[in-house]
Amino acid sequence: MAESSLKQSFDTFRAAEDIDASALLAGAVGVVFLLTALTSFVLRLGLEVPAIVGFVVVLGYGWYAHQGLTAKAVTFLMTVSTVLILGMITVFLVLESLHAFRLMGVNMLVGMDEPVTVFGVTVLPGLGNFWQPSSATYSLVPAMWGTFVTTLIATAVAAPLGVACALFLAEIAPNWAREIVKPGIEILAGIPSIVYGFIGFTVLNTYVFQNFQTPSQGSFFLVGGVIGVMALPTVVSVAEDSLDTVPDSMKDGALALGSTDWQTMTSITLPAAFSGVSAAVLLGVGRAIGETMAATVILGNTVGLPQPLYDVFGNNVTLTTLIASQYGDAGETQLSALFAAGVVLFVTVLFLSLTSLRIEAKLKQELSGD
Amino acid sequence: MSDAYDRNLVESESSTYQRLAASIVGVGILAFAFALAALFDLTAIDATFVGLSLSNLLGVGTTLVGLGVVGLGAVSYVGYVETTPDRSAGLVPAVLFGLLWFCVAGLVVSQTFGFGALVWLPAALLVGAGAAGVAIFPREDIGSTLPAGAFALLVGLVFLTNVIGPDWAWSPTDFSATFTPKIVVPFLTVLAVLVASWAAGKAYDDFGARGRQTGAYMLIALNALGILSVLVILVAFVVSKGIGPLFEGFSVGASGIDWPFVQNGNQLTNDVNGVFPAIVGTFWLVVGSVIMAVPLAVGAAVFLTEYAEEGRFTQVVELATNGLWSTPSIVFGLFGYAFLVPRLGNSTSLLSGIFVLGFMLIPLVLITSREAINAVPDEYRDASAALGVSQWQTIKSVVVPAAMPGVITGVILGVGRIAGETAPILLVMSGSPFPSKRQAPNVLDISFSFTSSFPFVDASLISQEALLNSASALPYQLYAIITAGVGQSEAFGWGTTLVLLLVVLSFYAVGIASRAYFRNKLRS
């Protein structure tokens, strides 16, 4: 029953797309070639070259005989490939990290060096160490804490300043000022992170070292500030977009009642676009979490927790810098633990980005009327 | 705000009150400038001006500002000038003032007098609540000026009496840092000036709705200016540091241009070491990832806008695109390290770098191309369809050409982004940290010859060896300099930074300019 209905829908599809037998055959052969090439590349079978040559031949025939149909099929395959890449990233990250997760279990995510006791009862036995390849002890707790602290500082910088700047661009600035500030923000987004890193390493680190008399060069405080500046353009442009989606008619209503522009902003525009603005902040947070190079070269990257925990001048490690500073001389297990750090990073950022995507979509739907 | 609503109907002459408020802001700006100068090492904190140490001078400035702001509030409150204050300054200023004074009281009681949490916490809460109360209960002219002015006054007096002077230092027990006057004095000055100027700005436009707008606009415009100056300072700093090394040994002679920093590699025999291999590496990276990613991304954008119907599939693709867009670059690097490197010759290689950066480029191009294709008016498609042209022909000869400017802009901006990426190529492509000129990847290998064995021709266009060997790139070169400990090669590092910045920012500048050009053209 199910089979026949499947066949039926396929027949309608064929009829609608005007696919004759030769096109169907060519399509099938092409897909088989492509799948072979892909499988062979993933499993290292060594059949990629002939399979790709075969695909190109089929493609040539399709282009000659059924150009429109081929174009549609090819663009479809291209679309699928974007999903495929994300899928492969997920699969390979998880696969590579499995070894470490199996070895450490839940301690990978919560393991402490000292036993944790609550009212004299040990709730979590200590590992003796956070990160020691020689005894195969790996815990991501210090790195996660470092990422948390730096991201918190970065958000404290990027969120208020970014939203204020977005407000300036979307609502306040006269045209001449917008023409200057807007490209400026975009160019700021373009400055490579390693450039921030180099300036941080050569100039800012020394500055903080001298004027805050920190025990060593590099601190979460500085990294958070630098990452905050780097996340700023993301917050500005996304927040500005969502402020722009608030329809003029809503603002006109407030203005017609005699409110000032600022009153309109605080009581109409900002509340209406609030979810979009928070999505912008979320995206900025995602950027800050994933920032690697500037943090790697500024921080000292010793794996451990700052003492006390809230010492923002601690000079430890974050998830990204853990990977970048250790991948080079890592053994198999350690590498797997670094992949585990990558998984935590990937999942967190993906979650933030998809949440903000959903918020934005909802906002657009709400403001477009109905 | 849309420009149609310019409502400055009543242009009044500025009154003495307004001039007073403006001059308070002026004094504030002066103090602000001196504070920044101290922060940026332009002047020492114990330098003397007109017989006063800088911290005392800043103290005079903030005291004046504080007194002035309190005065503005008082003058308005007693009705000496006609203003339009609201009944209360409002909740947001109250909360902020409360927090500010909570911190002030908490720090003074716990750090200056050394009391424990049992004393400082209630004291700070009391003072904070008091400040919030002052902001809420009295009329707006007192509520918004008194807590602000008093803060500036306090800061000023603390500087004037040398309680915080050039010899002061504070090492909180829980932080591994010491706060020196060089940081604290400018920081407190800037904070006090900002808070007080906000109050003065409100007073300038007679409080009330218009006053609030002036105060808020002042801070917001200042913020935008600050962000812009971060950019300008950053670029200017890199240029000033890097221009020397970049043009070292530069000469234009009969034999053409001699530019060692750009034409040389790293070699002991060189007078001037250069970044030629890194430039070549970055060039091939960009070319390769554009060739790989752009057709794919544009094709996908065409499918999504022209063929696909909104539904489950497009949603999934959208999720995937956004996921790829936000995935941290180091994760792309890890993926390449686990997936591509073992499959492409089992060593770091230019090809792996091209693939990884291509993957990063796909979402950037896809999103902008989709927008560009969506922006093509439906009339174009309808007109083409009415002539009996097939859908694919329409896409090929009408839709895509019309969307081309937007697509190209997206590509340029995307390339600017990936050209500066370091983390992924660090994992999948990097080789020798200081490559010599011979190690520059020589990708183009055009040769053609007849041979005696099948297939009787030996032609090659691209050198497989170059693609499968590690290569350097500008961002990686910079990273290598940092890991080598800078030291001797700091000038080399600044030169590299400048080259990298020039490459990336010129992509951005061209992209932004072309977008502005095409937008204007579309509008006219």
Automatic annotation (TrEMBL), chain A:
The chain crosses the membrane at residues 21-43, 49-66, 73-95, 115-131, 143-169, 189-208, 220-239, 335-354. Its main location: membrane. GO terms for cellular component: plasma membrane. It comes from the Archaea. The keyword Cytoplasm does not apply. GO terms for biological process: phosphate ion transport. It is found in: Cell membrane. Keywords: Cell membrane, Membrane, Phosphate transport, Transmembrane, Transmembrane helix, Transport. Residues 144-356 form the ABC transmembrane type-1 domain. It holds the Pfam family BPD_transp_1. Gene3D superfamilies: MetI-like. Coiled coil: none annotated. One of its GO terms (molecular function) is phosphate transmembrane transporter activity. It is a multi-pass membrane protein. PANTHER family: PHOSPHATE TRANSPORT SYSTEM PERMEASE PROTEIN PST, PHOSPHATE TRANSPORT SYSTEM PERMEASE PROTEIN PSTC. Part of the binding-protein-dependent transport system for phosphate; probably responsible for the translocation of the substrate across the membrane. Belongs to the binding-protein-dependent transport system permease family. CysTW subfamily. NCBIfam families: phosphate_pstC. This is Phosphate transport system permease protein. It comes from Halogeometricum limi.
TrEMBL record, chain B:
It is found in: Cell membrane. Keywords: Cell membrane, Membrane, Transmembrane, Transmembrane helix, Transport. One of its GO terms (molecular function) is phosphate transmembrane transporter activity. GO terms for biological process: phosphate ion transmembrane transport. The chain crosses the membrane at residues 20-45, 57-78, 90-109, 115-137, 144-164, 184-204, 216-239, 283-304, 316-338, 350-367, 492-518. Residues 279-513 form the ABC transmembrane type-1 domain. The keyword Transmembrane helix applies. GO terms for cellular component: plasma membrane. Its main location: membrane. It is a multi-pass membrane protein. Pfam families: BPD_transp_1. Belongs to the binding-protein-dependent transport system permease family. CysTW subfamily. NCBIfam families: 3a0107s02c. This is Phosphate transport system permease protein PstA. It comes from Halogeometricum limi.
